[in-house]
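Standup notes, protein team

Yesterday: finished cleaning the Algoriphagus oliviformis set.
Today: DUF3784 domain-containing protein structure.
Blockers: none.

Input for DUF3784 domain-containing protein:
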Amino acid sequence: MIAIAILFIVLGALVKYGKMHFLIAGYSSLSSSEKDRIDVDSVANVFRNGFFGMAAVILAAEVYGRFTGDLTIQKPAFFAAIFIGLPYVIIASNLKKNR
């Protein structure tokens, strides 16, 4: 689970700070006039926040599980992070894409 959390952190950082906007689905296939209408920085912020949030939930469950010895919390926390985080990223990025 830690590897997945690290992957989310890396992806969020690459999109926001590495300016790898081609990782945003559909962005690289847009024409340059369509790209000009999209506020890609705010969309990148949404992706960073969503991926960092999902990683935080997964890491918190991992730390809690190792600290208490109860590893049964890890799977529900992982699925909660995915099922809450991905809709957030999809919906919020679509709301913030137009300037």
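Follow-up from PR in the comments: Residues 2-95 form one domain.
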